[in-house]
Amino acid sequence: MLKIIYSEFGNTEGSRLHFLRQNQEDLRIELYRGLLDALECRAHNENICTGKLIILPSSFQGSPRHMQQNYQDAMAMVRKFGKPDLFLTFTCNTSWSEILNSMEGVQRPEDRPDIIVRVFNMKLKELLEDICKHGIFGTVLAYIYAIEF
After folding, report:
1. Fewest CB atoms less than 10 Å from the CB: which of 46, 73, 98, 113?
2. Greatest C-alpha distance within the chain
3. Which among 109, 89, 87, 23 has a CA at the least distance from the CA of 59?
4. What values do phi and psi take at 61, rounded to 5?
5. What contacts 39, CB < 8 A, 6 or more positions away?
6. DSSP secondary structure letters along the chain
């Protein structure tokens, strides 16, 4: 199961990268011509072979532009609402009963990342509802969260 998930993720990511590689002109790569010329000139002076410059747009999750856009969005919220009052870390526990009860036979939680993610997202949704809707820490004007794996 895990091999299938990783394989499909790799295939999907590869397809997205292939599309971006083939459509650089549509993504306005020509705006970077000056940067590309400078890099090629420096590489030529240092006898280094250059590769092809591929610009990943901010819509490509995990790209530098995506991270920069998220950072700028967060800073805009800080400018509007002020500094954060609460920083919370919420960690997934593979020993949660909801995860263990979903295992079949000799399966271990590591064998079923789909279940782990599903349970984590359900618990995260509950936590956000408690904080935002039920106001367990007071009134919420705005919030930002990030999920790391």
Report:
1. 46
2. 63
3. 23
4. -60, 130
5. 50, 53
6. -HHHHHHHHHHHHHHHHHHHHHTTTTTTGGGGHHHHHHHHHHHHHTT-------PPPTTSTTSHHHHHHHHHHHHHHHHHH-S-S--------TT-HHHHTT--TT--GGG-HHHHHHHHHHHHHHHHIIIIIS-BTB--S--------
Using CA atoms, how far apart are residues 55 and 42, in angstroms rounded to an integer?
19
Rounded mean pLDDT for each run of 10 residues along the chain, 149 residues in total? 77 85 71 75 82 79 91 96 93 96 93 94 97 95 89
> Is the Cβ–Cβ distance between 94 and 115 less than 8 Å?
no
User: Which residues lie below 8 Å from residue 43, measured CB to CB, with a gap of 6+?
Assistant: 49, 50
Residue type at 128 in one-letter notation:
L
53-87 per-residue burial string, b: 16 or more CB within 10 A, e: under 16:
eebbeeebeeeeeeeeeeeeeeeeeeeeeeeeeee
The pTM assigned to this predicted structure is 0.70
* CB contact at 8 A, 2 and 111: yes
Contact indicator for 77, 40 with CB cutoff of 8 Å:
no
